[in-house]
Amino acid sequence: MFIQLLKENRYVSLLLTVVRLYLGWLWLKAGWGKISSEKFDASGFLYGAVKNMTGEHPSVQPWWGEFLKEVAIPYVDLFNVIVPWGELFVGIGLILGLFTSFSILMGLTMNFAYMLSGTTSTNPQMVLLGMFILVAGNNAGKIGLDRWIVPVINKMIISKAGNEQLSQSATRT
């Protein structure tokens, strides 16, 4: 019943828009701050997270620390680009209500990556709010560009599926 309310109620879409704008602003601000400073370097954060996977009470799980050591640190130059731009694009997507579900999914992915790396900050709050947006689906982007974009994409997918069925039935006859 609660999920149905999130997915269908037009008044809830207003509330979700406020939450979406708030989260979008946080992501936009974080991404733009990193991009505009031209000094963002994730290597210190990554090495600190790896260091925190040892000790009596490690804040980073060994499997995640191994991922950081084997993937993130060797490709830190790539992460130095995708982290700030990812934050910026998530913020833009949420503010505009454009590809809202995908935007919040990518935001949640980053939130969990930060938390798995041993940081808390505002990430738990952002995850909690982001889950409401993700569960609400299209209702979260109804007051935004998704209102017009999603039906066009759905029409294209249905049209393509219909064409594929026609071509398959034509080859069988």
Question: Features of this protein?
Answer:
173 residues; mainly alpha; 8 helices; 0% strand
In brief, what are we looking at here?
With 173 residues, the chain is mostly helical.
What does this structure look like?
The protein is an all-alpha fold and 173 residues long. The protein has helices at 2-8, 10-37, 43-51, 62-72, 76-96, 100-116, 123-136, 146-172. The model has no long low-confidence stretch (mean pLDDT 93).
Q: Round the mean pLDDT to the nearest integer and report it.
A: 93
Q: How much strand content do the residues show?
A: under 5%
**Count of helical regions:** 8
The value of Rg in angstroms is 20 Å
| Shape estimate | globular
How many strands, which pairing sense, and closed or not: the largest β-sheet?
Answer: none
Helix content: over 70%
Structural class: mainly alpha
What are the secondary-structure elements, in order, as H or E? HHHHHHHH
- Uncertain stretches of 5 or more adjacent residues: none
Distance between the termini: 47 Å
- The beta-strand count equals 0
Helix and strand arrangement:
Elements: H1 2-8, H2 10-37, H3 43-51, H4 62-72, H5 76-96, H6 100-116, H7 123-136, H8 146-172
Helix pairs in contact: 1-7, 2-5, 2-7, 3-4, 5-6, 6-7
